[in-house]
Amino acid sequence: MGHRFLITGGAGFIGSHTALVLMEQGHSLLVLDNFDNSSPEALERVKGLANGQGSLELIEGDVRDADAVEHAFKSGGTIDGVIHFAGLKAVGESVNDPLRYWDVNVNGSRVLTAAMERHGCRTLVFSSTSTVYGEPQTFPLQEQTPTAPIHPYAQTKLAVEQMLGALCRTGAWRVASLRYFNPVGAHPSGRIGEDPLGIPNNLFPFITQVAAGRREQLHVFGDDYPTPDGTGIRDYLHVMDLADAHGVTLDHLLQQPDSTALTLNIGTGRGLSVLEVVHGFERATGITVPYSIVPRRPGDVPKLEACPLQAKTVLGWEASRTLEDMCRDGWAWQQANPMGYRRG
Ligand SMILES: NC(=O)c1ccc[n+]([C@@H]2O[C@H](COP(=O)([O-])OP(=O)(O)OC[C@H]3O[C@@H](n4cnc5c(N)ncnc54)[C@H](O)[C@@H]3O)[C@@H](O)[C@H]2O)c1
């Protein structure tokens, strides 16, 4: 039988794809989102794609607002588990406005978990990040690799991991902090996808916007990193693989009889350089992506690549989609929605 889950930030990029996967599994979802970086249209499209499977209700509100969170727990039936996506994620912005990041990411998580504690709902999947590893020197990155975050974004995510670890030590909590590497692509329908406001911070939407002619050329930030072609290496994974990982994680946590604290890398284990992604996109779509090399961005590290074995061992999850899938699906979304959710 389906469960009832609260999904904070469920209208966002990863949240919307995960919501669809969970609805297709027959679950009932309550999404709490303030649309700070998303559109209600995403949820309408998720409902359309789910085509009568599962259900989705929306509460428009801020995760830092204790009344809004309380309302979520009091509306409808018991909540069996929570996925906490709501948060801010732009590295550069976090350097310029650290207090906002500590407020939304850390205080928001505190308000949420306090309500969970009050309502006896102690099953939680938390969106953490590979950037907690900072500038690692040894690869691939295992979960026990020391963390050394170098910007406020990663520092706030690590602080929440630590807060959740402390909660687990009080007993009764079942928590998974998933350290995502670089989610890209879109649902293969092209109906939902990543919709960044302004100039994209991430490589993939930048590439698709250049391919679509919305921007003149791609900026490659640095070609003098200590990597084979000099450009930065990241572990890109298809957002649908990441969405699947959330469904599997919730299933796993709900089966645990005792308090559980998991920290898992979620990546493919196969890092790709910026130029490898550009050329992969060109091969998958037949479109040339003009680019220019510009200086490195502060906060960027040469390489992040997961060791994903722990997720496979514990959850039985591993990424299955290829770079070609990521490019084809991301491009389908961009072509069908040149201005994201804002038009058509
Ligand atoms: N996309 C990535 O590359 C990546 C990598 C690692 C970790 N993460 C983390 O995963 C989570 C989801 O990322 P995403 O890419 O889907 O980002 P996103 O910005 O698309 O989604 C975040 C969602 O949270 C909502 N939100 C923000 N502040 C809120 C608040 N105070 N109250 C309620 N809702 C709020 C936004 O409106 C949005 O819908 C974030 O916590 C992010 O830090 C993302």
Please characterize this protein's 3D structure.
With 344 residues, the protein is α/β, with parallel strands linked by helices. The protein is 40% helix and 17% strand. The strands form four sheets. The protein has a seven-stranded parallel beta sheet, sandwiched between helices. The radius of gyration is 19 Å and the shape is globular. The relative contact order is 0.15. Nicotinamide-adenine-dinucleotide (NAD) binds next to helix 1, strand 2, helix 5, strand 5 and strand 7.
CATH topology of the domain at 4-186 and 237-267 and 305-320: Rossmann fold
Which series of helices and strands comes N to C?
A: EHEHEHEHHEHEEHEEEHEEHEHH
Please report which band the strand proportion falls in: under 5%, 5-15%, 15-25%, 25-35%, 35-45% or over 45%. 15-25%
Structural class: alpha/beta
* Main sheet summary: 7 strands, parallel
Small molecules (ligands, ions, cofactors) in the structure? nicotinamide-adenine-dinucleotide
